Structure formats: structure tokens, C-alpha cells
Inverse folding.
């Protein structure tokens, strides 16, 4: 059985978490939870909610929880359309709010907008419901896969104690 953790960025490449253009997301990865080898082996099989744990860092979870809590005034754990509109009508168009809310509901099978589906929807929309040009979570997902493949291909020192075959696959 394999064990160990891959750290995608060294401390030398870590940057403080500041608002960054989407193209610079890879530099922000140093503060997030490292991906264990067992998880990486199944990465393609994981649902987006399962991947979120490794894609977001602590300060992002805190901010998302705060944003969600501000909308969920009845503290039901679900944001209704009325709660969402009340929180965003000053800053957002009805079209933007509807697109965000529909995306949020879709993540839960069209049933509701709970905290996790809200976090997923925020990958495609800003706090006020305006759509990003690219889905941030999809970009992070792709970057995690690319970085892991690069590490395996180069057999970096980050994976001490493992042997690799000619295809970069870890062998016992």
C-alpha cells in the first residue's frame, strides 16, 4: 500500500494569497491541502465536491462560509431565491443573479443551493453573481492534474522512496 503526500509547490514558489488574475492561480496553490497519492490515483473519479477540499485553501473556505452565511438569513443551510435576490439585488442584474442561482441549484440536482453547491458555483461567478470568463475551479482542477503529471514525469525529490516505471507510474 502506498502512502505519502505530494506537495505541489515548494515554499520557494509560495506567494501570499492576494487577489490574482486567473492565469496566476498556480502560485496560490502552496497554501492549500496537499493531495495524497491515494487521492491523486482516483482524481478523475472524484466528484467536484470531493475535489474542493484539495482545491481551496483555508482562507477561501472562511470567506465562502461568511458569504453564504450572509445570504442564509433563516440559517436553514439552504439559500432560497428570495434570500439570494435580497443579498444581491443592489449589485447584480436579474439575469446575472438567475444564472448564478441556476448554476448553484444544478450542482445539487436542481433541488437547492446549499453551501457546497454555492462554493462550486462561485468557481464560475464572483460574489455578486457576475460570470467569470473562465471557471476557476475547472482551471484549478486542470492545473492540479498537470502539476501532478509533471512531478511524476520528472521523478522529483518531492516523492522520495518511490520507484517509477518507464511511463512514470509508481511501482511497489
Amino acid at each position: 500500500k502506498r502512502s505519502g503526500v505530494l506537495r505541489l509547490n515548494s515554499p520557494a514558489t509560495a506567494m501570499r494569497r492576494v487577489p490574482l488574475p486567473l492565469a496566476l492561480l498556480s502560485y496560490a496553490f502552496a497554501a492549500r491541502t496537499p493531495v495524497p497519492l491515494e487521492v491523486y490515483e482516483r482524481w478523475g473519479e472524484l466528484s467536484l465536491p470531493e475535489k474542493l477540499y484539495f482545491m481551496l485553501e483555508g482562507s477561501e473556505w472562511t470567506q465562502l462560509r461568511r458569504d453564504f452565511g450572509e445570504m442564509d438569513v433563516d440559517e436553514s443551510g439552504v439559500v432560497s431565491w428570495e434570500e439570494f435576490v435580497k443579498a444581491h439585488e443592489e449589485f447584480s442584474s436579474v439575469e446575472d443573479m438567475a444564472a448564478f442561482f441556476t448554476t448553484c441549484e444544478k450542482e445539487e440536482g436542481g433541488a437547492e443551493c446549499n453551501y457546497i453547491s454555492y462554493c462550486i458555483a462561485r468557481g464560475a461567478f464572483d460574489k455578486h453573481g457576475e460570470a467569470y470568463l473562465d471557471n476557476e475551479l475547472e482551471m484549478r482542477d486542470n492545473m492540479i492534474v498537470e502539476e501532478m503529471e509533471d512531478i511524476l514525469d520528472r521523478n522529483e525529490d518531492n516523492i522520495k522512496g518511490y520507484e517509477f516505471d518507464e511511463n512514470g507510474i509508481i511501482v511497489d
About this structure: The two ends are 8 Å apart (CA to CA). The chain has one domain: 5-171. Residues 1-29 have pLDDT under 50 and may be disordered.
